[in-house]
Amino acid sequence: MSLKFVTARCKGCGICAHFCPKQVLMITELNKSAVAPGKEGDCIACGQCEMRCPDYAIFVTKEEG
Amino acid sequence: MKEALVEKYFRPGRLPHIWCPGCGNGIVTAAMVQAIDREGLAKDDVALISGIGCSSRVSGYLDFNTANTVHGRALAIATGLKMARPSLTVLVASGDGDCSAIGGNHLIHAARRNIDLTLIVFNNNIYGMTGGQYSPLTPQGSRATTAPYQTIEPAFDITALARAAGATFTARATTYHTPLLTDLIAKAIRHKGFSIVEAVTACPTNYGRQNKMGNPGQMMEWQKDHAVMKAKWDTMTEDERAGKFPIGLLSERTDAVEYTAAYDEIIRRAQA
To answer: What is the pairing mode between strands B89-95 and B46-50?
Structure first.
């Protein structure tokens, strides 16, 4: 999987981090969504963040294999 | 929402939108876009009319035939558009105050006529843009700028109001239940006649803060905990229903004549 952040659109509301079932996401000191340290491999590409992001600032792609 | 849909349906250079951090309006907009995409409608065949308010900014972001019109009168203008160009799929985006207070009269008469419009009510329970005054959809007992000691007025159930006035399709979903919201908007677009979809959306800045509802994620958890699917709702007692609200397809009927079709029939008879 890969996560794409469009940081220019992110307002740091925290909805993505709140609903992430694997606690992969966090809001940084700069008030932007990002992958939490050490959680890079934990994303299961469920798409909850992409589905709920009100600012279209995070996109999930599921890679084959 | 997938990135390809953002690129396809949003006007270039208009994002980020003006809505506050955590505002659910962006989620409702995504549901609308996904519903329109799923229905396979060409952008030029869709018109989106909005009134005034936070929610009504949506017409500026999306690349359809759009108009950001006057306060409460989006339905009136959409009615005129639908009469002039019945082939267009006309969606109306309106906020709770815009639609139920300022435009309450237009709402009941558009519903009474059963004109083929799809109204999406962005119900955030408050007048957000003007600083958090209570609207007719603010739940009784809420705090607002104009009700520092809580509102004493009961709220409208806007879907029941529209249904009583003659709307032939009424539905409700929340921004937490995004796939359901998308499904219902798609069904409402397909429905021939007046359809209303109430989208319960969070206003963290002006409603949530005054009512101590927590952060945007917690406000969406509130939606999850208080919304009940229609099938389950029907089996619940009055006590169990207290404080909760039903979501899903609330009513649909096909026995009423659609307004533009009735008008075409009058033209045909007059010319015969």
So the answer is: parallel
| pLDDT digit string, tens, across residues B55-64 | 999 999 999 9
The residue among B80, B50, B84 whose CA lies nearest residue B68 is B50
Q: How far is CA A26 from CA A15, A44, B209, in A?
A: 10, 16, 22
Structure pTM? 0.96
Kindly report, residue by residue over B4-40, the tens digit of the pLDDT. Answer: 999 999 999 999 999 999 999 999 999 999 999 999 9
In Å, how far is B220's CA from the nearest CA of chain A?
Answer: 9
CA distance to partner chain A, nearest, from residue B180 (Å): 12
Pairwise CB contact (< 8 Å): B2 & A50: yes
Q: What is the ipTM of this complex?
A: 0.94
Of A12, A51, A59, which is closest to B21 when you measure between CB atoms?
A12
Contact present, B121 and B172 (Cβ < 8 Å): no
Domain count of the fold of chain A:
1
- Residues of B within 8 A of A13 (CB-CB) are 21-23, 204, 215-216
How many Cβ atoms are within 10 Å of A47's Cβ, its own excluded?
15
CATH number at residue A24: 3.30.70.20
CATH, range B20-271: 3.40.50.970
Closest A-chain CA to B27: A54
Average pLDDT, chain B: 96
Q: Across the interface, do A11 and B21 touch by the CB < 8 Å criterion?
A: yes
Distance from CA of A1 to the nearest CA of B (A): 15
